[in-house]
Amino acid sequence: YIASQNRLFDISDSSLRHYINLRNLTVTRTRLTSISSDAFYNNTKLQYVNLRDNNLSMLSWRTFQNFNITFPLLLSGNPLDCVCENMWIKLRLQEDIDSPELTCTDERGETRDFATLSPPDCVVPKVELTPKTVTVLKGGDVKAVCSASGSPVPVILWTLDMPSTHYEINPLETKSTLTLSDLSPDDNGRVIICSAENMVGQTEATLQLNILFPPTIQQLLGPERDHHWCIPFTVTGNPKPELLWYHKNELLQEQDYIRTMIHESTENEDHGCLQLVNPTHIHNGEYKLVAKNEYGRDSKTVTAQFIDPPNISPIDDMDYCK
């Protein structure tokens, strides 16, 4: 809470850098004139901002781009200009039905209601990304086109985190083409974002990747004992592979006391185990896991020794036969 500070003129990225848990901020009745676009970059938990009765004439939407639109942003009492740079404030007020009336000053020095603000050549960007989803085999290529409109002419930006895949961007003024080459299974499920931004605001469109690839058994470990016995495994594949178990080369019929359990499932991997409840010596031996989908199959084996077989002597065998 900061109030009546005549020497406070600006808030920059360094002003609140160390207040990472800041939730409520009030700065009122100061000579605050400017707030940098990255002033609240480190304040990701911010929920309430009160900037009433300061000296702000212009504010960038970038300053508040990570600030949830459902949280109150209080700006009354500032000499805001009726300019395109402040148009985003009008758009935000339209989203907030409980917002107080806000005014701005036009080039003639007259006070106007923000709701009537409509500067020329001031249009929030629109963006279209084609295709929106794509399904392709691993090793394949994808081309996506992002088209944008707005005034001033928006800048087109791509956001993609794909360290193992080569990509090229061919930018034009209102269109940008992204080409992805040799797509990897690691890219399955990734979302690529194309955004268009100008001084009025930002709009995003997304492309989701569905990469098809054959199964791989990443690991198959020896039995571990927890509450029950478990043979752990990690399997990848898209579509999700069918899992089959073989015990001593015979197909294992799963039932309540011996069955496959998936403990964690992601876009690309399944982590689980073959769970055995109170296994005996007859369950010892080699276990083979087979994973298969329409694009291929993989298998691995592991040897399990749950309990030593009973030590029956030949004499005991003869007594048993009698």
Automatic annotation (TrEMBL):
Domain Ig-like: 125-210
Keywords: Disulfide bond, Glycoprotein, Signal
Repeat listed as a keyword: no
Listed SUPFAM superfamilies: Immunoglobulin, L domain-like
DNA repair as UniProt keyword: no
Record Pfam families: I-set, LRR_8
InterPro entries documented for this protein: Ig-like_dom, Ig-like_dom_sf, Ig-like_fold, Ig_I-set, Ig_sub, Ig_sub2, Leu-rich_rpt, LRFN
CDD domains: IgI_TrKABC_d5 (cd04971)
SMART domains according to UniProt: IG, IGc2
Designated name of the protein: Ig-like domain-containing protein
